[in-house]
Amino acid sequence: MKMIATSVRLGAVALFGLSFSGCATQGAVSQTQRCDLSSVEGVYALQEWHTNSGVLAPPAVDGRFVLQDGAVITILQNHADEANKITSTVFGVFAQEGCNFSYRYTNASLLIETGTGSSVSHKLPWEGMRVFAVTSEGAGNILRTADGKAELNFTEGGLRYSENGKFVRLWKKIAKR
Question: How many domains does the chain have?
Answer without folding.
Answer: 1
